[in-house]
Design a protein that fits this description.
2 domains, five-stranded antiparallel beta sheet, about 400 residues, alpha/beta, globular, 13 strands, Alkaline Phosphatase, subunit A
């Protein structure tokens, strides 16, 4: 038996008037999920423990079977693991987004945050920008490391876990009240804006009508993580397939394999087919029992507030990940159990994460069910199936 999770990050949502009061998941054309739902258990799962902030960090830990209340030590340290940062026990890791701020002539705190991802800027361009920041602001105390796209890392030697605001939580707002209380971090953010605002890469981006990547934004502070081995914990040898450093970092910390897929960038136009192929190779050729396919695009489109693109991201997941995945497994005659779900909602209405429960679909190729339901939020609630502790859902996947 092989086991696979296909996770559409932020895929869950709320009913939207322009979609006929349906959610993007209910509205999207998803023939593969529709067909699977008729043979599957569906239900709702609560991935975010009460009192914890809704994030892809806590939620994906839960989906992988790690109780966030026990294992979570901050988001950025997990990403640091992914990019090979040698954290000391006294280090604090912070996410360093390269974001887009408004460029009117006003004091720094009066500027507005327009885009948390700088138009999904490429890793290659962002690495050049980060190098310019690092050249002036890097030191023995503050060390910058390149990640993926707009997502990078700052290591603070003998720092402290300070309260910082995720940029995607305050899109469209003036930044003053959300700047760090720590004077050094706040000053570095302001200075990074001065360094980047007239950088040649940003001048060219503006000529092309793209959002400039003109400021560092620090958030997600945490200490060195300590995760139990996934294989020792579950008895399953696992492979992570994701473009996102956070997910790759969780995998590294848990001793899982990490597949690097060419062209996988965490955006809407990622290499969906390559992700499916990487998972298939892991379970059919390389001796892995379990593959976790993480698709970031629905979450990014939720943050952008684009109904159309979020629907498109869900349709791409269905047709370009689930379709080739299930067709190949069926053609090979492989017995498998498949879990499809989001980690958390990213509703278009708020353009950030919420802690509401999300729908799951659990399919067993050896024991198909006969059901009439579809896979979406409303059907999940109506099913009556509910997993209150999200980290226990993986036990349902592995029960056979």
């Amino acid at each position: 038996m092989k086991y696979i999770i296909v996770l559409g990050d932020g895929m869950a949502d709320e009913p939207i008037e322009e979609l006929g009061n349906r959610t993007p998941l209910a509205y999207a054309k998803t023939p593969v999920m529709d067909a699977l739902s008729k043979k599957s258990e569906i239900g709702m799962v609560h991935t975010i423990p009460d009192g914890m902030k809704p994030g892809s960090d806590t939620a994906n830990l839960a989906v992988l079977g790690y109780d966030p209340e026990k294992y979570y030590s901050g988001r950025s340290p997990l990403e640091a693991l992914s990019i090979g940062v040698p954290m000391k026990d006294t280090d604090i890791a912070l996410r360093c987004n390269i974001v887009t701020l408004s460029e009117e002539e006003v004091p720094f705190g009066e500027k507005t945050i327009l885009d948390h991802s700088s138009g999904e800027i490429s890793t290659e361009d962002c690495a050049v920008l980060l190098e310019a920041v690092k050249k002036e602001l890097g030191s023995e105390i503050y060390q910058f490391y390149v990640g993926t796209s707009y997502r990078h890392c700052l290591i603070w030697d003998k720092g402290e876990v300070v309260e910082l605001t995720p940029p995607h939580d305050v899109l469209g707002q003036k930044i003053g009240q959300y700047l760090p209380a720590d004077e050094n971090l706040r000053r570095m953010m302001e200075r990074s804006h001065e360094i980047l605002i007239n950088h040649p890469i940003n001048a060219e981006r503006k000529k092309q009508g793209l959002n400039p990547a003109n400021c560092c934004w620090f958030w997600g502070a945490g200490t060195k993580p300590m995760l139990d081995s996934f294989e020792e914990k579950t008895g399953k040898k696992g492979m992570m397939v994701s473009a996102v450093d956070l997910l790759k970092g969780i995998a590294v910390g848990a001793g899982m394999g990490v597949s690097i897929v060419e062209g996988a960038n965490g955006g809407l136009h990622t290499n969906y087919e390559g992700k499916a192929e990487a998972a298939l190779k892991a379970v059919l050729e390389d001796g892995y029992d379990f593959a976790y396919i993480h698709v970031e695009a629905p979450d990014e489109m939720g943050h952008q507030g684009s109904v159309e693109k979020k629907v498109q991201a869900i349709e791409y997941l269905d047709g370009r990940v689930l379709k080739p995945l299930t067709e190949r497994l069926d053609a090979e005659g492989t017995d498998y159990r498949l879990l499809v779900l989001p980690d958390h909602p990213t509703p278009i209405r708020v353009r950030t994460h919420t802690a509401d429960s999300v729908p799951y679909l659990l399919y067993d190729s050896t024991a198909p069910l006969k059901r009439e339901w579809d896979y979406n939020e409303a059907a999940g609630r109506e099913s009556g199936n509910y997993v209150a502790e999200g980290y226990r859902l993986i036990e349902c996947l592995f029960q056979k």
